[in-house]
């Protein structure tokens, strides 16, 4: 009978043999002999981080096996997951050293402060983008003509992969008109089965159109229809004394400069100045039988219909007079023309 001889191999030798085989395998496949340079700050667009993203100096071309699996190590070899779109990850010297050893790269950290900052590229969708698509959805339902929307989170920013289209789809929207609230589910990108779904809430506000200056309007210039545009504003922001009818603007002029695209108060307008301060005017008194006139000087400016102070140039007395038109005022009592050299007309 043949005898079977058994040999005892020390466990330490087995472990050493396994390590040597592993190192030999990586070293043989790597073919990386060129010194590499660390990239301190990188931006990636996909979901993976590759050796070539972290280190500069790879000369081995892509082996066509989708990131180095099953073939030689190259700059396309995947070593980590990328952060989420719009987020950042930091890999320190210890992690980088392990990667270099694992793939037998010609690189060692120079200090323990060596690191790589990885940013994930993204397309940003903000709160106004979402509000706009919600308005379109409500308009399609026929109930958004006089409604303004505001998201509860007005600083909302949604980051999606930069390779994906920045399209939005309203999956569902529910409104509570009595309380002026809404909630909605938005899918990004639109029509994608793997789309990210975002739940948003907010408030609805009734709006109205009001006339506002199309440009800066200054005193001395009568307001024309071409100077006015219409602006949608929330009803709650319209004051009782605000101008809401364009006819209130026409043939008026500003008392002070009016800024563009802002609501105007009725007290900001006046009829155009027809008598300037210091202007010589004709003072008129009328009765059923006669009309008397005298010369005067306006002590203040005013528009047709305003009462201003006028000094009689003959008597140096000051009277109140109502402006009739350019250079012409009317006094209420005959005694106000007394001692003047008025003439009967």
Please, could you describe this protein's structure?
The structure is a single chain. The chain is mainly beta. Helix content is about 15%, strand content about 35%. It contains 4 helices and 24 strands.
Task: Write a concise keyword list for the protein shown above.
single chain; Type Iii Antifreeze Protein Isoform Hplc 12; 5-stranded mixed beta barrel; mainly beta; 5-stranded antiparallel beta sheet; 345 residues
What percent of residues adopt helix (DSSP H or I)? Answer: 10-25%
N- and C-termini, Cα separation: 160 Å
Count of extended strands: 24
Let me know the average pLDDT: 83
Offer a quick outline of the entry:
The chain is mainly beta and 345 residues long.
Layout of helices and strands:
Elements: H1 11-30, E1 37-38, E2 41-44, E3 48-50, H2 51-54, E4 55-56, E5 78-81, E6 88-92, H3 93-102, E7 115-120, E8 122-126, H4 127-140, E9 147-151, E10 157-161, E11 169-176, E12 181-188, E13 196-213, E14 228-234, E15 253-254, E16 269-270, E17 273-275, E18 280-286, E19 291-298, E20 302-303, E21 307-312, E22 318-325, E23 328-330, E24 343-344
Parallel strand pairs: 2-7, 18-23
Antiparallel strand pairs: 1-4, 3-5, 6-7, 8-10, 9-13, 11-12, 12-13, 13-14, 15-16, 17-20, 18-19, 19-21, 19-24, 21-22, 22-23
């Amino acid at each position: 009978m043949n005898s079977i001889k058994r040999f005892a191999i020390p466990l330490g030798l087995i472990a050493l043999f396994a390590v040597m085989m592993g190192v030999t395998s990586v070293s043989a496949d790597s073919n990386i002999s060129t010194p590499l340079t660390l990239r301190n700050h990188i931006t990636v667009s996909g979901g993976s981080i590759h050796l070539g993203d972290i280190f500069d100096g790879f000369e081995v071309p892509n082996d066509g096996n989708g990131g180095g699996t099953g073939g030689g190590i190259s700059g396309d070899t995947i070593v980590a997951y990328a952060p989420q779109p719009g987020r950042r990850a930091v890999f320190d010297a210890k992690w980088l050293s392990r990667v270099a050893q694992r793939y037998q790269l010609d690189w060692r950290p120079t200090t323990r402060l060596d690191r790589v900052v990885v940013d994930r590229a993204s397309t940003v969708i903000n709160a106004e983008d979402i509000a706009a698509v919600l308005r379109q959805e409500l308009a399609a339902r026929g109930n958004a003509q006089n409604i303004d929307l505001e998201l509860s989170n007005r600083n909302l920013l949604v980051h999606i992969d930069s390779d994906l289209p920045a399209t939005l789809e309203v999956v569902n929207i529910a409104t509570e008109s009595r309380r002026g609230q809404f909630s909605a589910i938005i899918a990004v990108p639109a029509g994608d089965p793997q789309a990210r779904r975002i739940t948003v809430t907010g408030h609805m506000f009734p709006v109205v159109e009001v006339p506002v200056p199309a440009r800066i309007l200054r005193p001395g210039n009568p307001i024309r229809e071409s100077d006015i545009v219409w602006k949608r504003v929330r009803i709650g922001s319209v004051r009782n004394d605000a101008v809401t009818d364009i006819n209130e603007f026409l043939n008026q002029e500003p008392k002070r400069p009016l800024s563009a695209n802002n609501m105007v108060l009725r007290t900001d307008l006046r009829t155009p100045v027809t008598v300037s301060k210091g202007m010589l005017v004709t003072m008129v008194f009328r009765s059923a039988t006669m009309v008397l006139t005298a010369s005067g000087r306006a002590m203040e400016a005013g528009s047709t219909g305003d009462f201003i102070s006028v000094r009689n140039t003959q008597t140096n007395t000051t009277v109140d007079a109502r402006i009739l038109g350019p250079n012409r005022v009317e006094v209420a009592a005959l005694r106000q023309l007394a001692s003047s050299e008025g003439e009967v007309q």
